[in-house]
């Protein structure tokens, strides 16, 4: 399993986290998503490397902004 942490700007509540989680879970290979609304951290577990463009597109589809990606 591969774990990556991203920072997402604009989330302020559990509903926000739900929207981001739902969109990221649609990316092929994603097995789990955990969101910390207070810090904006989104931890993604996958069974393969994820393209940053795919993650950014999912976050933007949810209505938020991907600001950083850490591995």
Number of strands: 4
**Oligomeric grouping of the chains:** single chain
Inertia-based shape: globular
Q: Reading side by side through the largest sheet, how are the strands ordered?
A: 2-3-1-4
The stretches of 5 or more residues where confidence is low (pLDDT under 50) are: none
Number of helices: 2
* Gyration radius, in Å: 11 Å
Biggest β-sheet strands, sense, barrel:
4 strands, antiparallel
Going by helix content, strand content and strand pairing, the class is alpha+beta
Q: Helix fraction?
A: 25-40%
Q: Order of helices and strands, N to C? A: EHEEHE
Please report the distance between the alpha carbons of the first and last residues: 13 Å
Proportion of residues in β-strands: 35-45%
Summarize the structure in words:
The protein has helices at 14-25, 52-61; strands at residues 2-9, 30-36, 41-46, 65-70. With 71 residues, the chain is α+β, with helices and mostly antiparallel strands. The radius of gyration is 11 Å and the shape is globular. The chain starts with a strand and ends with a strand.
How is this structure best summarized?
The chain has 71 residues and is of the alpha+beta class.
Question: What is this structure's SSE topology?
Answer:
Blueprint lengths: L1 E8 L4 H12 L4 E7 L4 E6 L5 H10 L3 E6 L1
Antiparallel strand pairs: 1-3, 1-4, 2-3
Entry keywords:
alpha+beta; 38% strand; 71 residues; globular; 2 helices; 31% helix
């Amino acid at each position: 399993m591969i774990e990556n942490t991203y920072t997402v700007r604009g989330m302020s509540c559990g509903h926000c986290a739900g929207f981001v989680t739902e969109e990221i879970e649609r990316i092929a290979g994603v097995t789990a998503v955990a969101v910390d609304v207070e810090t904006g951290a989104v931890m993604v577990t996958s069974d393969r490397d994820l393209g940053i463009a795919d993650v950014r597109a999912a976050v933007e589809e949810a209505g938020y902004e991907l600001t950083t990606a850490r591995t």
